[in-house]
Amino acid sequence: MKAFNDLADFSNEEIAALLDLAGRLDLHPEPEALRGKVLALLFLSPSLRTLASFQAAMTRLGGGSFVISPEMSIHGIETRPGIVMDGMAAEHIREAVPVIASYGDAIGIRAFAQRRNIEHDMNEIEYTALTDLIDTPCINMESAMNHPCQNLADWKTLDDLGVPANGGKLVLSWAYHPKALPLAVPSSTLHMAAKRGMDVTVLRPGGFELPQPLMQKARAAAQASGGSVTETDDRIEAMQDAHVIYAKSWSSTKHYGDKIADEDLRSELIDWCVDDPWFDNAKEDCRFMHCLPVRRGVVVSDAVLDGPRSVVIHEARNRMLAQMAVLHQMLGGPL
Amino acid sequence: MKAFNDLADFSNEEIAALLDLAGRLDLHPEPEALRGKVLALLFLSPSLRTLASFQAAMTRLGGGSFVISPEMSIHGIETRPGIVMDGMAAEHIREAVPVIASYGDAIGIRAFAQRRNIEHDMNEIEYTALTDLIDTPCINMESAMNHPCQNLADWKTLDDLGVPANGGKLVLSWAYHPKALPLAVPSSTLHMAAKRGMDVTVLRPGGFELPQPLMQKARAAAQASGGSVTETDDRIEAMQDAHVIYAKSWSSTKHYGDKIADEDLRSELIDWCVDDPWFDNAKEDCRFMHCLPVRRGVVVSDAVLDGPRSVVIHEARNRMLAQMAVLHQMLGGPL
Amino acid sequence: MKAFNDLADFSNEEIAALLDLAGRLDLHPEPEALRGKVLALLFLSPSLRTLASFQAAMTRLGGGSFVISPEMSIHGIETRPGIVMDGMAAEHIREAVPVIASYGDAIGIRAFAQRRNIEHDMNEIEYTALTDLIDTPCINMESAMNHPCQNLADWKTLDDLGVPANGGKLVLSWAYHPKALPLAVPSSTLHMAAKRGMDVTVLRPGGFELPQPLMQKARAAAQASGGSVTETDDRIEAMQDAHVIYAKSWSSTKHYGDKIADEDLRSELIDWCVDDPWFDNAKEDCRFMHCLPVRRGVVVSDAVLDGPRSVVIHEARNRMLAQMAVLHQMLGGPL
């Protein structure tokens, strides 16, 4: 595997093989698989789970990693092309990325969306500008519209819990949050569930529709796998017979990049906090999923998050296992 | 070993076995013992020795570790229960701790005292609230009133130096410091020395008495081991025939949590700086111990710290060895 | 090897052996060489390449490392001798360095020049004050006037590119930069190239002459190796038939430690930005070298840096390989 940028680049069979490997590595550790191998971890955006789970994954496979993040005293990193660097930044990303990559057998890169122009972000301009600088095998640790490590972990969680692929219903629900958050998790989760063959309902208030190209991408994936994609702002309709609700806040797409207008719109929506009544007409054992971090009492009630429906810690642990499988395939450990 | 929270949880025989193992690992490295094992390190309070020595310990045993600390750009971590998270913090400790723990085979946690209410701190409310969230084997890297890794290292140092257990005299002395510091080291050092069977004298000015429950805990340990515990504010009496002075500053217990009153009281006590004359009536080779960090010219004179009495670097190195023994037992390396 | 402080401490034969080892480790990984060995990394000055490349180097050899840097919440570190520590700093370097070193089998230390007094800096007072505190094998990760890891990597790059040793011409050129930068790289690069037997021309404007003792040290090295050292402010003369231009900005030595006077002087010199016309009378395949980080459009044009002359990424990767060789020899891995 040369790159792990988007789950859409892999067939369902390849994903099944990765998940099978992840499960095997959990039961049968392989602390010799990646002896002396190095993963470079470049965080241009903050992280907790990704930071910890990738380091742990490499150690478990017998290799190691190093972390570069902007809060380190590393002179400041310039990202604009063609600029005369007479300001604060002492290093340009055009040198920093190839150098950091040259120390690793693979590199993980996190670079969130700029969230000024939605076309720009949907085209993954930022992330691609970085990966275009290098030949090193590359892992997307969250870009503008993709978070394939999260998607692979969530797919595993759905499998672990026995949620049906075909015939399973997943509600991807917008939730209130005081800040306008990126689209990477909702966009790529929608696609993941559709690709898994599930019936996916996007539940969101007006102004928070997911972009049409992303809806189309998911619909195509659903069609190929026997699933479906619908959208609604009607909570009761959406939750009917749901196996899973996957909650996540995201930016207004109607006012993308317009912080004030987004704030105005979302300020009316603080009742979009997932709570027990949401589950009234769902399947009895309907699960609550979230990629974390999650704001308690804002995105979800304490009761739901601390109750038996919540599988958020299970999801988070699966990050490590999913990434171990990706690293194992990418860095040439024997299958 | 499932938890290493307090030295009091272990018998003197168990401690002897740990120290024996620590010595053996120093002489005969076991770089295969913990192959592929991961230690999660969660620092809710700052660290240098603990941070470095745990990472080094895991590497020496063939495993690895990762560090999460609040100065990382990890969204801010909320600790208050039942709160509506509409402020700065994006993640609650109730998710963060189980997630971080899920990536490790064991987790080390550092969480200093709140120092508002002494009962609260003596009951280890903060630390226990964290460890209650997880089943992962857990190491206390300093809590409100305990620092068992420091204690085990200091016990080893006393052994290494041939300081007698029964019949050995250790003076635990308060020292001046411009800030009100936690009680974890003095409290747990008092107990360690008493448990080792030593005659311990707590030397402290009025207003800095250690809490009675902690004095009682130490007296019980001394009684079981053939030691004794006394307290005084008379330096000459305290230092008479001492084998060791263990210096440490701590908060006023009379004014616990009252920063202004504490400052008023300590401002009169800047002569509590351990200097050569303190040793006039001690054993000729009386040693100076301190857990570090230590303020030169404030807690102890340069002459004492740079002189032959000082064993502070030896103590600090023993942190690594003691922790290697704990990790070796906890993570299942063969004895 | 007990210390790697200055390339001048090694014979050309010893350097050849290190470079041979570096090349071998690149082709034939030895992930067992330093099993369970620990490198302590102490950064008193900021870093990206050094931070990443040393961590990667230890992992590739089967060991590990830990990092201590001042931006960590480690209480603040006092460096002044004999001071009463009643201010912010809670720990003195006299304890911090021996403690950190005690956790490693070797220690790397980075401590830039104070840049107040040039004699002080040329005598490596800061760096030596730190290494004098310890017996642990020590690697200079950049001190006031030395950067032997960079020098060894650059020597390897020159070899890799087939630049002749005797008869090869290297131009060490000052370049514009808005800040007054340390002398470590230019001083030690000058010496490295001379020691390699090259004809070295120092190209710099008036007021930026390298100190005479450093010029003498380089001339002595050149004499022993069949090279030469000259200096000039004439760009056309300097670049005539050059095989390599090594660009780097540095402080005015005329106004050393005088920030205002330095700024006044350099503000007239913004045309010292390496650009295509500089190469008009150089060898056709004349290379551009720089230790990084480099400011685009300030030190060097985008055209040169992105063009075929530039070998800066190759240089940076060689940092890792050169350091692997040093660590391999220092920590006792079999040759």
List descriptors.
homotrimer; 335 residues; Rossmann fold; 2 domains; five-stranded parallel beta sheet; 12 helices; globular
The name of the CATH topology of the largest domain in chain A is Rossmann fold
Give helix % range of chain A.
25-40%
Whole-number total of structural domains of chain A? 2
Low-pLDDT regions of chain A: none
Topology:
The structure is a homotrimer of 335-residue chains.
Chain A: E1 3-4, H1 12-27, E2 38-43, H2 49-60, E3 64-68, E4 77-78, E5 91-92, H3 93-102, E6 106-110, H4 118-122, H5 125-131, E7 138-140, H6 148-160, E8 169-174, H7 184-195, E9 199-203, H8 212-225, E10 228-232, H9 235-239, E11 244-248, H10 259-266, E12 287-289, H11 302-306, H12 312-330
Helix pairs in contact in A: 1-12, 2-12, 6-7, 6-12, 7-8
Q: How would you sum up this structure, described in words?
A:
3 copies of one chain form a homotrimer. Chain A is of the alpha/beta class and 335 residues long. Chain A folds into 2 domains: 3-147 and 316-330, Aspartate/ornithine carbamoyltransferase (Rossmann fold), CATH 3.40.50; 162-310, Rossmann fold. Chain A has 12 helices and 12 strands. In chain A, the strands form 3 sheets. In chain A, strands 1-7-6-2-3 form a 5-stranded parallel β-sheet, with helices on both faces. A 5-stranded parallel β-sheet of chain A has the order 10-9-8-11-12. The first copy, chain A, has a two-stranded parallel ribbon with strand order 4-5. In chain A, α8 links the parallel β9 and β10 (228-232). In chain A, α1 crosses α12 (312-330), α2 (49-60) packs across α12 and α6 (148-160) packs across α7 (184-195). The radius of gyration of chain A is 20 Å and the shape is globular. The model of chain A has no long low-confidence stretch (mean pLDDT 95). Chains in contact: A-B, A-C, B-C. The A-B interface holds A 29-32, 46-49, 51-53, 55-56, 58-62, 64, 69-71, 178, 292-298, 302, 305-306, 312-313, 316-317, 320 and B 35-38, 40, 63-66, 68, 71-75, 78, 82-86, 89-92, 94-96, 98-100, 102-104.
